[in-house]
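Request: Have a read of the protein record below and say how the chain folds.
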Amino acid sequence: QVQLVESGGGLVQAGGSLRLSCAVSRHTFSSYTMGWFRQAPGKEREFVASITWSGGITYYADSVKGRFTISRDNAKNTVYLQMNSLKPDDTAVYYCAARYGTVVDTTAAEYGYWGQGTQVTVSS
């Protein structure tokens, strides 16, 4: 069983930055592609970013490209999402997810493990 725990959310003004962390409780963390998704009130969950097990390949939603950076530290079983130049439209609950395998993936249904989510609120 893989357990994921997100942290780092909060309230920030537009233009500010936050770094989300996701701690994964499994020693084979390095075998999993990791992803970040978000869900705003009244909207469907959407893909934000994904990173392969080696960290060599990353993929971003167009809406966050150039502002967000996904990274991972396999020695610490942790994946990060650095969010810069935040906008009010980035307000959402952010979820960390894990998918066994070696490819980036934008499809939420392909991820078998999810964290509980962390709230990010960007004020204008």
Observations:
- The radius of gyration is 13 Å.
- The mean pLDDT is 93.
- The CA atoms of residues 28 and 52 lie 13 Å apart.
- The chain is about 0% helix and 50% strand.
